[in-house]
């Protein structure tokens, strides 16, 4: 009998009726003869409510107490899900992170899972009991509750699947799977049957919201077969798997985009050794992440222009820091632009195919879309363009790489 | 330095501002040099919300999962209270029942505390840290969360005070203490400075809502000095203490009442040995509690009338059972009356004073109030009267026993 982990997100457990419906998806697996561990998020909106309570009490607060408060949401769902399963005649019980236990480090609010004890759990599963486990949380080294941060429940599910040696980890969500592109923008986008971990990792880090990079990276490292699928429709989702499981690989598997970036151009920066370090050092110290960077060739060997991107949320803070440091930098001026988007084409097939970048540049040039910045990795090409051209660019690229379906 | 336990109920922690205010009451004790353990209830209304979720999922449900869900409310308050205390510059941390641990039996939903481990807690308190403890819950023998049932947070506080050898357990609530009678009905009622455990126990079991009998009984057994006081006013409350701490004892300390009883009269019951057993046996089996009982003297030696009271909530069920058993009972008919109240005068001084009952009967007769049933204990006289006369009876008795203040 196969062990399966099923994870239900906040929308899938957003109320009594939804939890009841999710329970029917668990029953399907039980009826197939699988041993099932279920991982649940807090009911939709509940974590935000708890975070608001903490922040209203004190904008700056003890992360340990934040975790104590915020971790309560998943407990409620786990208990309710266990009851819903019992209503369907299924033997079930709820487990918190500390009961399993899911051991983590002591970085409250962003803890890392170190070890999951599975002896008791495996015995219960083998006896036909469904384990309903609180996502997003564990127990730290000094016996306090920790939470795992953004995307934590997915991570709980993947780590549990790895620890149990599960055949598959199903991530139930409100979309039907991973699409070649956002179907709200590109009508001809289609659901992928399979995608590799590396591609999914790039999709996630380049703006696709369906999975967090931490969960995908953990799945990749432990060879956990992930399935992203909809709680609400009864169709297969997208499998995220090792590359050798995919027989016929497309050159480009998907196109991602992100509206979360902003661009800063530094004009008239003295072109001398060490200027980049004195520029980016203070940003790194302030925890500001710089993504794409392009330095123009210096025309007179004296001054140059330099362009880079940061998260839109960090734009003001970055400009403040730059202005403050400009005594040392000696730049002429800083030119910010928040009206940009990053578009990325992703596919492991790029490794063995030439001309992928050329197709991208041609397609964009053909629509009169100016490329402001470019960055590449082995399986990805990203360009920064004006936000106004986002939809046009996505559709043009989707067609150019032969991804359209009717 | 004295150890003090402070317990705040749902109204006292019903929102961010109220928790902040309650934290200032903790600070007062810390500033006096006390070592303080704080026990908190769930935010007002929160436990009801959680209970509703469980009941909506399944009217009949696994008590273990009920406890898993419902115990989350106090965790939220404990974390928020710890943050509020930290905001006031006080070193504080939250503790759940399983972290302390508070060991209980495995009777989910109505667990009994068996043992509280206090070594770590005492060390923290001695180092000046305030411990904020979730009320209402513990950990059972198999490592699951248990809840203590009605009045559970008071019980947590009293048991913690006993385990810590605390000098006092302060129960902060929305009233200023224990009154001679309900001040909403008797304007001349006054707050008692002190009351004995036994009197408080009778007050609680005869309808006074300020404390639950379980908490008072536990305090009495462990000689925990209890104080009932208001979170919102800065005046001393009522101390619940051993009898020898009270120098000048009133004959009657207080007058309690309950609207929760209903009366059933069985007319024409065959007057033969064993009839009471065949009457009350099935009620006991059905978990129906019978309080007052009076059997009339049989006039012809053949048939008699018998009157008793049950909780109003059990009235219909009791009548159903009696009708079903009437083959064996052979009564002529059953006459129910829900329009009754029980009024009780309570005082340890009764032990050494005659004429207490007489004063009661005279006062009621003087207002034309008919007494339907009477029951007495060493320190209490209860009468059942028509509900219509409740307010009149309370005021008459309050005056008759010399309790009125202007």
Structure description:
The structure is a homodimer of 406-residue chains. By secondary structure, chain A is an alpha/beta fold. Chain A has 3 domains: 3-174, Acetylglutamate kinase-like (Carbamate kinase, 3-Layer(aba) Sandwich), CATH 3.40.1160; 261-337, VC0802-like, CATH 3.30.2130.10; 340-400, 2-Layer Sandwich (VC0802-like). The first copy, chain A, contains 12 helices and 20 strands. In chain A, the strands form 5 sheets. Chain A has an 8-stranded mixed sheet, sandwiched between helices. In chain A, strands 13-18-20-19 form a 4-stranded antiparallel sheet, sandwiched between helices. In chain A, a hairpin with a 2-residue loop joins strand 19 and strand 20. The longest helix of chain A is centred in the N-terminal third of the chain and has 16 residues, at 16-31. The interface between A and B is large, with 37 and 37 residues.
Strand arrangement within the widest β-sheet of chain A reads 3-6-2-1-9-11-12-10
Low-confidence stretches of chain A: none
Biggest interface goes to:
A-B, 37 and 37 residues
Helical content of chain A stands at 25-40%
The general outline of chain A is globular
Beta strand count of chain A: 20
Number of domains of chain A: 3
Reported by name, the CATH topology of the largest domain in chain A is Carbamate kinase
Q: In CATH's first tier, which class of the largest domain in chain A applies?
A: Alpha Beta
| Assembly of the depicted chains | homodimer
Number of helices of chain A: 12
Considering the protein shown, what is the CATH homologous superfamily of the largest domain in chain A? Acetylglutamate kinase-like
Question: Which structural class do you get from the secondary structure elements of chain A?
Answer: alpha/beta
Distance between the termini of chain A: 39 Å
Mean pLDDT of chain A: 94
């Amino acid at each position: 009998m196969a062990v399966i982990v099923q994870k239900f997100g906040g929308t899938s457990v957003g109320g009594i009726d939804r939890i009841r419906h999710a329970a029917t998806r668990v029953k399907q697996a039980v009826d197939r003869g699988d041993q099932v561990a279920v991982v649940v998020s807090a009911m939709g909106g509940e974590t935000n409510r708890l975070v608001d309570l903490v922040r209203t009490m004190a904008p700056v607060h003890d992360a340990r107490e934040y975790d104590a408060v915020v971790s309560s949401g998943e407990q409620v769902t786990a208990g309710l899900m266990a009851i819903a399963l019992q209503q369907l005649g299924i033997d079930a019980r709820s487990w918190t992170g500390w009961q399993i236990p899911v051991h983590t480090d002591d970085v409250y609010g962003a803890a890392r899972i170190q070890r999951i004890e599975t002896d008791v759990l495996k015995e219960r599963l083998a006896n036909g009991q469904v384990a309903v486990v609180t996502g997003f949380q564990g127990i730290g080294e000094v016996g306090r509750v920790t939470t795992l941060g953004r995307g934590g429940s997915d991570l709980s599910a993947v780590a549990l699947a790895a620890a149990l040696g599960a055949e598959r980890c199903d991530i139930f969500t409100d979309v039907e799977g991973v699409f070649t592109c956002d179907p709200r923008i590109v009508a001809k986008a289609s659901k992928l049957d399979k995608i590799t971990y590396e591609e999914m990792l790039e999709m996630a880090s380049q703006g696709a919201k369906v999975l967090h990079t931490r969960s995908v990276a953990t799945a990749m490292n432990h060879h956990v077969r992930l399935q992203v699928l909809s709680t609400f429709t009864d169709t297969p989702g997208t499998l995220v798997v090792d590359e050798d499981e995919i027989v016929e690989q497309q050159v480009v598997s998907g196109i991602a985009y992100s509206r979360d970036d902003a661009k800063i151009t530094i004009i008239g920066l003295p072109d001398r050794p060490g200027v980049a370090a004195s520029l980016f050092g203070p940003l790194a110290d302030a925890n500001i992440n710089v993504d794409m960077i392009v330095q123009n060739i210096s025309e007179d060997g004296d001054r140059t222009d330099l362009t880079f991107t940061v998260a839109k949320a960090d734009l003001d803070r970055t400009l403040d820091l730059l202005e403050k440091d400009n005594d040392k930098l000696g730049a002429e001026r800083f030119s910010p632009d928040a009206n940009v988007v990053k578009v990325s084409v992703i596919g492991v097939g790029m490794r063995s195919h030439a001309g992928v970048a050329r197709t991208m540049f041609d397609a964009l040039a053909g629509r009169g879309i100016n490329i402001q910045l470019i960055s590449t990795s082995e399986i990805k090409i990203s360009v920064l363009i004006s936000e106004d051209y986002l939809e046009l660019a996505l559709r043009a690229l989707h067609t150019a790489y032969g991804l359209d379906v009717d």
